[in-house]
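Re-run with default settings, no changes from the original entry. Doing this only to confirm the output is reproducible before filing.
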Amino acid sequence: MFDEIALSPGLTYNSKTDSVEGFVDHGGPNRRLEFADHALTFIVKGIHKKWKQVVCFTFCQGTTSSSDLCKILTDVIRHFRSCGLSIVATISDQGSTNRAAINQLLANTRRHLNVQGRENRLQGYLIDGEEIVHLYDLLAMF
């Protein structure tokens, strides 16, 4: 599951990492000296057992762009698969950025299958050859 929330912009000093927090930060080198006013949060939830865990969050100004969301979502899914988890679905609200990102992933899948000469019978999108179905939550996520 992923969702974005609004934040009050502000800066704090983190003595453990000797860094200033509160700027736009999508992880790694993707940090900009712009005040963050939104956080994008990812939660993994079990299907067969009852558990959930916040696993990733990024900070952005305005909303995360759909292209950045596609990249971050793909990276999060790949990291979990490398740990042995099977990701079968993603869930988000119907925000315009979320819809655009999922539509981009679906279009990438259609193009990929078209290049291979395969008929698209999928309900979702492919990440590294494995299908993930996206579901839109009609209620508040968290």
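The radius of gyration is 17 Å. Helices lie at 66-82, 96-115.
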